[in-house]
Every structure is written in C-alpha cells, then in structure tokens.
Design brief:
Helix content is 78%, strand content 0%. The protein has helices spanning 3-9, 12-20, 23-36, 41-65, 69-76, 78-111, 117-135, 137-162, 182-193, 201-216, 222-250, 262-277, 282-315, 322-346, 351-377, 390-412.
Amino acid sequence: MSLRDKFTQFGPGLLYAGAAVGVSHLVQSTRAGAEFGFQLLGVIILVNIIKYPIFEMGPRYAAATGKSLLDGYQRIGSWATWLFLVMTVSTMFIVMAAISIVTSGLFSQLTGLTLEPAFLAIILIALSVFILGLGHYSTLDKLMKFIVILLTSTTILALGFSFIEPIIKTEEAMTVFELGNRKDILFLVALIGWMPAPIDISIWHSVWSVSKNKERGKRLPLKVSLADFNMGYWGTTFLAICFVSLGAIVMYGTTESPASGAADFASQFISLYTQNLGEWAFPFIALAAFTTMFSTLLTCLDAFPRTLRQASKLVAERLSERKFHNNLYWFWLITTAIGTSVILLFFLRDMREMVDLATTISFVLAPIFALLNYIAMNGSDVSEESKPSKAKKIYAQVSIALLFIFSTWFLFY
C-alpha cells in the first residue's frame, strides 16, 4: 500500500482533531498558561489520560459493528437515545455560540473588519451552512488534513522561538492557583470540561467513521480505525501542551492578562506568535488560527445535525423513510444556525463568560455520556475480540468513576 493510500485511510481522527483543537486549546489552554504558568499543565495531561478510554469507544464501536454509538444507545433502550437528544438540543446553541464568537474575533484580526462580533459570528455561521450544503463529509475530510498540519507546524515553530528571547517577568504578576479560591475552581472546571473535547464528540467520531466506511465502500479494520483515532487524540494533547507553554512563556508573570472580548483575545493570541517569529508571520499565523477555529465551527455545525438526524430516526422509525431522511439533516442544520444566532444577538455578554458556561455544562454532562458509551461498547452486538481487554475495561471504569466524582463534587461545591 502506497503512502498516499495509507493517508487516505485517515479521516475521522483528523475531524476529531478539528473539533477538539478550538476553544479548549486556542482559548482555554492559552488562558491556563497565561494566568497560572505551568501549574495546570499536569492537570491537562492527566485529564487527557483519564478521558482516553471513553473517547476510544467511538471508533472502536464503529469498527466492530459498522454502526454509530447512537445505535448502541438505542440497544440500551430508547430512553438513552431520547436522553442524548434532550441533552444535545439543550446545550448545542450555547456550544455553537462560544465557538462562533471566538472564530469571529480571529476573522476580525485576519481581515481588519470592525463589525460587531455577534453579527460577524452570524455571517460566519451562514457561510458555514452554505459550505456544508455543498459537500458534507467529503469537504470536511479534505479540508481538515491541510488545516491540522498548518496549525501544528506554526505552533511548534512559535513555541521553539519563544525560548530564544525570554520575556521579562515580575513576581508581583505571578498568580498561584488555589483550590480554596472559588474563581480558580470555576476556571479549572471550564478548562477540563472541553479538554481535550466534550465527551459527546466520541459519538460524533463514530458517526464520521460510519460515513468514512460508506465513502470507501468497506469497513476499515479495527487496528486502522484506532491508529487514526490515536493520531488525532494524542496529537491534540500535544497541541494543548504547546498552547499552555506559549501562554506561560509569553504572558504569565507580565502585566498582560487574557482579554474577555473576542477581538481583543484574538489579537493577544496572534501576538503570542508574532512576538516570537516577527511581524512578517502575522498573515500566516492569523490565517492558521482562523482556519483552525473555522474548521471547528464547520465540524461542529455538521456534527450536531448529523447526529441529531440519526437520533431522530432511531426514536421515530417513520423518519427513516427517504423523503424524511433527505430533509432531516437540513432541518437540524437550520435549527442549529438559528438557535445559535438568537443566543449571539440577545444573550451574549462577553466571550470569556460564554466559553466558560459552555465548557462547564460539558463538564457536568461528561459522566452520563461516558457511562452510556461503556454500556454500548460492551453490548451483545459487539464481538468479544472487538471489545476492550480486561485491563482497558478497568481503565474505563476508573475513568467513569472519576468523572462522576468530579461532576458531583462540583455540583455540591
């Protein structure tokens, strides 16, 4: 098999990376480094390790059964699919608003447009709807390979240059993370809520895997599917470390703190690169940052209607008829776009508040999706050789227990 043929096998893992490397990395990881230096780096690495077996169930289930995790939810009981529908619809507008407002800030920096961030975000959403209408999965699959490589290379380059000329820091500006500080705890929860991504992206991953199999005309082997996933998952973990490091090296211990406005934060973020590489790098960095966030916007705006379409079909059999199937994606796509626009126009106060709200909701819901994933993965429709090993099952059980403990503690806190 040629290198090109091997590369074409990869797709869902890169779509996962496109969805993950957005708000959680560009915004939250950078903020973690800027506000607390390297103090939260260990937490970020640990969270990625804890969540790994939960996310892995998406591609594993799709490779084992040829179906998505939503089919596994339906086998558990229709209540599980209804639960997914209710939780997704009740949170997706806030999630999309957080993503789109960050994207608008970066677009403003790239183009110099000074439009109101909310209006600019709505324009980008409309553009995304148009793009998705042209290509769906194949368009995303092709775009993501270029975007992920571009951002990774520029980030590694900027981080390398950041060590050459140390930034002057003052002890008075160095803050210490405190478990007894309510503000610090709320930020920690917001940070790990989308680190490396919301748990429901594991469901999206299984749906993308099924789409990839249909496109190829055959199901990819489990080994290949997991290799694709591991590349995306640990690649995003590495990038999270890079963003924390950039924030810690360039902003921590200085008078500059992360801005709450979308445009102002975008300017600060791009300056992390240009301070180290030079102003010549501005167009390249601005383009890389914007395309990364725009890819997240595209990926999520596609994933919500795609998964909701399938969930709707599972709970209402008549929607499986072709005339309903063709329109269901568009119904959920337009609904997502309109609902997000309403949030942006009437409920947006500042970017940081919107991001923290969206990530905190994901933190609270994470153990529910994790438990459903585990039950589906160990169902009777999955062959024994495709199920996780005994050690991996224990790993997943510990992960789920920790997620429940963290979520319960936060709710009582």
